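Query structure, 450 tokens:
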């Protein structure tokens, strides 16, 4: 299995672009470097970057092809580039080990209010082996495979557990739990419910990736919201790393009164790639993960909304960020939580097609900046919330709990509770020593495919 997550923008219109860019290959015969050598691999990397890379004009003129591929690639990256990457499944240092991929859980080591660092379960994937073992969000971990986790050792402990395909956790609230590694199939619709303590029913959806294979679950959630008479909606994207842009477009169209011919997204590439704009209908039709949403079905999902509350965190990224950005020309968005990751670009996934050259590296350079229908974009530092709230100010509560700081803030806004009348929230600034979700930040790619 490939290291990391791959979240794609499938887009047939790039075929013409690829034909144009492919014509820009360097002149003259290809150098005859030995198959699998650093020179061969690095020449392939450089050639690809010269064609596709967003910052191709800033590439060094004569980089040293004798370096190992990872340090060589680092010398090519523009200082503004946080997310281009190259990885090899057999080179562990090219990607971070991720417990969510193997066990279905995320861990964080942090201290709140100056207290001692505490390892805590941040997320459990429903239906995973971690969930089957009884692990729950907010539980405290005292030992990992017999060793107390610290800032200095927790990443190595997680890496060792991934390598041995098993992890044993001492859980303060539940004792010792052993979880074998296995395939994690994540239904992104973790939870949907309706809060009925407000003047009008408030719909809540925890949505963790844009995956068209679970279209029915998303439709089912909105059916339940409609039947409950919901007129307000809270979408929780605090851990959502992105996904299929076709699903992103479909969800956006369900949340605002757009037509299928309205513009959804604008792609801006390097000086050769130019600018492309795409409608909702065209983007939705190119859904790659499952069957595309029919636009008539999307209209039937719509709730009588005048605004949408979206909960974000430092791991809200890619298509999740673009959902917020894409809605802003069409409806009011109230963003609550933390500033998002700032992944405002898309990549190509490039492999060496010459099977005889012993090159198994995967190259994913950033190639496009993303903009909404009003040509608004360029948020590499993330999307700042309208209302700042940090879930780590206290104990991590179950997903969907009304006392969760982000949910509580949204409900109080909906209920018209003024800032002066609100109960003070702890919101102490935490110090994070380790966060396994950062592997998703680094390993996740936001890809457009030719």
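Result returned for the query:
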């Amino acid at each position: 299995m490939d290291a990391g997550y791959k979240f794609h923008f499938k887009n047939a219109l790039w075929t013409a672009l690829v034909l144009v860019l492919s014509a820009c290959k360097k002149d003259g015969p290809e150098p005859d470097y030995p198959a699998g050598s650093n020179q061969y691999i690095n020449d392939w990397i450089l050639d690809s970057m010269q064609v596709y890379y967003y910052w191709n004009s800033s590439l060094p003129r004569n980089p040293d092809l004798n370096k190992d591929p990872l340090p060589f690639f680092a010398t090519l990256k523009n200082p503004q580039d946080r997310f281009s990457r190259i990885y090899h499944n057999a080179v562990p240092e090219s990607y971070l080990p991720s417990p969510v991929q193997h066990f279905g859980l995320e861990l964080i080591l942090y201290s709140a209010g100056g207290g001692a660092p505490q390892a805590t379960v941040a997320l459990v994937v429903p239906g995973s082996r971690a969930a089957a073992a009884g692990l729950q969000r907010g539980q405290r971990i005292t030992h990992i495979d017999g060793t107390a986790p610290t800032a200095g050792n927790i990443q190595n402990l997680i890496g060792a557990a991934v390598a041995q395909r098993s992890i044993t956790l001492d859980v303060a609230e539940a004792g010792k739990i052993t979880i074998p590694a296995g395939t994690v199939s994540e239904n992104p619709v973790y939870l949907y419910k309706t809060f009925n303590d407000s003047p009008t029913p408030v719909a809540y959806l925890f949505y963790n990736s844009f995956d068209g294979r679970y279209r029915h679950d998303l439709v089912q959630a909105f059916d339940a919201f409609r039947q409950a008479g919901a007129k307000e909606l809270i979408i929780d994207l605090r851990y959502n790393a992105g996904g299929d842009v076709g699903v992103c477009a479909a969800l956006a169209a369900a949340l605002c009164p757009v037509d299928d011919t309205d513009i959804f997204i604008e792609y801006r590439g390097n000086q050769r790639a130019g600018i492309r704009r795409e409608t909702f209908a065209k983007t939705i039709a190119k859904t790659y993960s499952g069957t595309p949403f029919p636009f008539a079905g999307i209209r039937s999902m719509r709730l009588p909304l005048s605004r949408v509350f979206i909960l974000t965190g430092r791991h809200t990224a890619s298509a999740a960020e673009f959902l917020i950005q894409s809605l802003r020309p069409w409806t009011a968005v109230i963003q609550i939580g933390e500033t998002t990751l700032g992944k405002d670009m898309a990549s190509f996934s490039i492999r060496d097609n010459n099977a005889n050259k012993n090159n198994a590296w995967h190259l994913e350079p950033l190639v496009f900046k993303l903009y909404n229908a009003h040509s608004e974009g360029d948020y590499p530092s993330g999307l700042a919330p309208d209302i700042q709230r940090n879930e780590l100010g206290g104990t991590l509560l179950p997903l969907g709990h009304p006392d969760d700081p982000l949910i509580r803030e949204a409900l109080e806004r909906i209920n018209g509770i003024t800032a002066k009348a609100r109960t003070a929230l702890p919101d102490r600034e935490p110090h994070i020593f380790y966060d396994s979700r950062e592997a998703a930040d680094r390993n996740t790619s936001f890809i457009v495919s030719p």
